[in-house]
Amino acid sequence: MKYSFVIPTYNNKRLLENTLEALHHQEGFGKDEYQAVIVDDGSDDNTHQIIEKQNRNYNLKYIFLDRMTDSCRAKARNCGWKNADGEIIIFIDSDIIVKRNYLSQLTGCYEMESNMVVFGTRLMLQDDIETEEISNGEIFRKYKFDRSKAEYFEHRHYLFNTMSYNINCFLDPWLYAYSCNVAIPRKIINEERGFDENYKGWGVEDLELSYKIYLKGVKFVFNSNLEAFHQNHTRATNVNVKSGVYNAECFIRKYPDALKIFPHEVKKLLLIGGLEHDFTGMQEEVEYIGKKIEACLPPNTKCNKTEIIEFKNKADIDKIKAKIKKLTASSDIRIIVNDYVEDTDLGIWIQLLDKSGSVPLYFVMSKKLNAPGFPGP
Fold it and tell me: What is the Cβ-side half-sphere exposure of residue 118, based on CA atoms within 13 angstroms?
C-alpha cells in the first residue's frame, strides 16, 4: 500500500460523503495502491451509513471511537495513522475534496525525494456541493485554482503571492503545512510519535508536529498543484478562536524559540491563521504578517542585482533549470522565476535545490495577483 488518507470526522456525514466520492475518482491508481482510514470521533449522526453505501475504488477502514472527555483531533489522527497501511500518510479533513490527479501529483514529488513533507492549499468554497458534481467532474470545471477565483483563496495564497511559492524563502516553512492537506512519510510520523493529544479543541496540534519534524532537518515542499476544495459549512467560530488562541499560547510556552522574530500577538495570528476562510476577515493581519516575513527573508533573496526568468515554453525546461542552477551558485543575486507553464516539476525542483547560494523566488503566474484579493497578470 503506497498511500493512506487519514480522515478524522465528527457529525459531518454530508460533507464526508463528498470527500470520499473524490477519492473514488483518483486517476491512475488501483484499489490496492491507496486506502482511506476514517476515524469517527464518536458521531451520533449515523455517519457509518455513509461509509456503507459509498462507491469506492480504494480500500477503506472505518474506526469508531467512543466520545470521551479526552476526545480531540490529535487523538483521532493518531488512531488513524497507526491503523493505516500506507508508506505515505495523507492527512485531510472530512470537508476536503481533492482533485482527480492528487495522487499523481504526490507521486511526482516523492519520486524526486522520498524523505520530505509535501503540502497543498485550498479554495474556500461558499456554495454547497452536490455529490453528483464530483462524480461527473462538474466541480473541477466550475472552480479553477487560479486568480479568476481569487475571492476563494485562503490566506496562504496571499502570502505566497506576495513572498514566493518557494517555501524555502520563508524562515519557518513548517508553519504552512496544515493537516487539512498534507502528506508525510509514515516513518517520519512514527519517529515523532504523532500528534500531541494534550491539544484540545481547534488548531495548532498539526503545526507542532510539523515543527518537530522540521527540527530534525526534514525537507518541506509546497506543491502548488496539490490543491483541494474546502466545502462550505457553518463553524463555531467563537469557540474555535478561543481554543485556537489557547493552543497557540501553549505552543509558544512549549517552544519559546519558535518564531522568535515575531512579537507574541503575531505568533498567535500565524499559528491560528487557517481559521479564516478568505482574506476578508484577516486582511490587515495578513498584510502585517507579510511585511514581517518579508523583512526577515534570507539575505540572498534581497540582493541589489536581480535576474528574472520567464518560463513560458515547456520544451525549454532543461535550459531553464540549467540557468537557475548556475545562478544559484552565487549568493549575491536575486533570482525571480515566473512560471507560466505550471504543469512541470519546476516548482518542486526549485524547492529541492541546495540553499547554500541564492534562493530563487518562484511565482505561479496563473495565481499571481496585482493586489490582495484582486485578479491581475
Answer: 29
Distance between terminal CA atoms of the chain?
42
| Average confidence (pLDDT) over 267-279 | 61
Residue 121 sits at φ, ψ, to 5 deg, of: -115, -170
Q: Output the CA–CA distances (angstroms, integers) from residue 20 to 49, 93, 95, 177, in the order listed.
A: 13, 11, 10, 22
Provide the percentage of residues in the chain whose pLDDT is more than 70: 88
Radius of gyration of the chain (CA): 20
Q: How many Cα atoms sit within 13 Å of 321 on the Cβ side?
A: 15
Phi/psi of residue 241, each to 5°? -60, -45
Confidence of residue 302 (pLDDT cuts 50, 70, 90): low
Per-residue model confidence (pLDDT) at position 298: 53
The model's pLDDT over 182-209, given as tens digits with 9 standing for 90+, comes to 999 999 999 999 999 988 877 899 999 9
Q: pLDDT value at position 239?
A: 57
What is the number of alpha carbons within 13 Å of residue 211 lying toward its C-beta? 17
**CB-CB contact of 122 with 154 (8 Å):** yes
Task: Name the residue among 154, 163, 167, 165 with its Cα closest to residue 311.
Answer: 165
- Cα–Cα distance between 55 and 39 in angstroms, integer? 18
Rounded Cα distance, 83 and 80, in Å: 5
266: exposed, middle or buried (C-beta count within 10 Å: 0-12, 13-18, 19+)?
Answer: middle
DSSP string of 161-183?
HHS-S-GGGSS-GGGG--TTEEE
The rounded distance, in Å, linking the Cα atoms of 125 and 277 is 9
CA–CA distance, 205 with 208 (Å, rounded to integer): 5
User: Among 31-35, 203-207, 353-357, which stretch is predicted with the lowest mean pLDDT?
Assistant: 353-357
DSSP secondary structure letter of residue 113: -
The reported pLDDT for the residue numbered 275 is: 52
Instruction: Count CB neighbours of 191 within 10 A.
Output: 13
